[in-house]
Structures are given as structure tokens and as C-alpha cells.
Amino acid sequence: MDRWPAGVGREILDTVDSTNAEALRRADAGEAGPLWLLARRQTAARGRRGRAWASPEGNFAASFLLRTPGQPALRSFVAALGLHDAMVALTGRAELFALKWPNDVLLSGGKLAGILLETGAHGTLVVGIGVNLADAPDAAVLEAGAVRPVSLAGATGLRVTPAEMLDALAPAVMHWEERLVDEGFAPVRAAWLARATKLGEEIVARLPGREVAGRFETVDERGAIVLATARGRVSLPAAEIHFAVGGAHAARD
User: Fold this and answer.
1) Is the pTM of this model over 0.85?
2) According to the model, what pLDDT value does residue 140 have?
3) Among candidates 41, 48, 102, 39, which has minimal Cα distance to 76?
4) What is the distance between the alpha carbons of residues 18 and 2, in angstroms, rounded to a whole number?
């Protein structure tokens, strides 16, 4: 395992409302990181679009506060690659893991981890990461069409503590962050696509008031997903991705 990255802070909190909220407060107070905040327990964890995020003790809940030179949305790919590489390092099972655009890590097809980006004060970014290490939420409480949740322990029998997860994750994320800063998005994009699920297959992108179905062609140089639809190629910078069943979906505007 790589050593903890030089110059990066690390704090473990017993209880906090959410690590992202705490990191945003730190940014408001003038902190710029880079700093990892790991919580043993969260009382008000949240996911994308304000959704609640189940965060029982034993699961991983952490946020990375850093100052970015621009293109904050591309840090979703950095974090996803770091998560993927950390899970492979911990398990030795690369074939089990895949990445789902824009911000999920899958284990044997189930959702293992999610990423939440939020911009902070003074040019900072907060990258929140939740991983179902010990337990997965009940699939019955999820929205229709959501990828079934899984836990690392339940799917593999491997028990990893949140601290062990952070020790593997921090150097992996910093590796891809440095590549993004030094080399641009191209190598990050290529690595992400090599780990992507459903590439070349039919998927459905849900946006407010409409759905777009098509073949997942690629991710463009801005990080948008590109679909080949019956009406031509469509590039979407943001959407909820669902997997098509039996090719029954069609593009609807």
C-alpha cells in the first residue's frame, strides 16, 4: 500500500452531521486543505440531489477538501478512479469492480460507493465519498430503477475498517489528482473509460421532464456522457443514468 500522501491532512471525527457539511464549514473559515475528514458516525448524511444517504457505523464516510485550479466536475472522475484502485488494492479482485457515470462505484453490478461534489468558499472543492463497507441500505427504500446496493463485507466476506479504507484511498485519489493537474483530463478520461460499466450498451439518461435513451458511446473531453440515439449523438453534462431493459426505451424530449 502506498504511503499517506505528503502534505495532506487527516482527521477522524467521532460524530458529525455530515463530513461534507463539516468540510464546507472549514472552507468558510478559511481552510483550503488538502484535508481528509473521516467520520465514525454521521447524523445527517446526504447524497446527490439532497437525497438521504444511509451511513451506519462501520461504513466509510469521508470528505476531501482541496483547492482546485478549475474544472471541479472532473474531480468526480479522479475520486472514482481512486476508489476503484483502492478497492482493487484491498481485495486483489479487479474483475469485481466497475465505474458508473457520473459518480458511482459498482461491485458485481451493485452500488458499493457514491461520490458527492460541492463547491466551497475561496475556490475550494469538497469531495464526499461514502462506501458500504459493512452494510448496504435496504433496496426497498430506493427509487424505482436504482442500482441495487451492496456491501463489501456482504459481497466478498472481506472486513475493512474505515481507517484502512482511507489509508488506501487517499494516495490513490492523490495519484489521479496529480495526473489531472499535470497532464490534463485525457489520461484520466482514458483510465475511467477502461473501467466503465455498460460502455457500448443501451442506457437511459433521466433529466428533469424527459428521458434520453441510447448507446453509451463515450465520455467527452468535458466529462459529459455521450449517447448515440435514434436522433443522433447527444452529449449530456448531467443526468441520472439507468440501465435499459430489453432495448424497450426510446429517446423522449
Assistant:
1) yes
2) 61
3) 102
4) 27
Average pLDDT over residues 136-161: 85
- For residue range 155-177, list pLDDT tens digits in order: 999 999 999 999 999 999 999 99
Class of domain 9-194: alpha beta
How far is Cα 3 from Cα 129, in angstroms, rounded to an integer? 20
Which residue in the block uniquely carries the three cell numbers 447524497?
47
Report the amino acid identity of residue 105: V
Query: What's the CATH number for 202-243?
Result: 2.30.30.100
Q: Are 184 and 177 in contact (CB under 8 A)?
A: no
Rounded CA gap, 39 and 101, in Å?
A: 26
CA distances from 108 to 95, 96, 112, 113, 180 (A): 8, 5, 9, 12, 28
Helix, strand or coil, per DSSP, at residue 53: coil
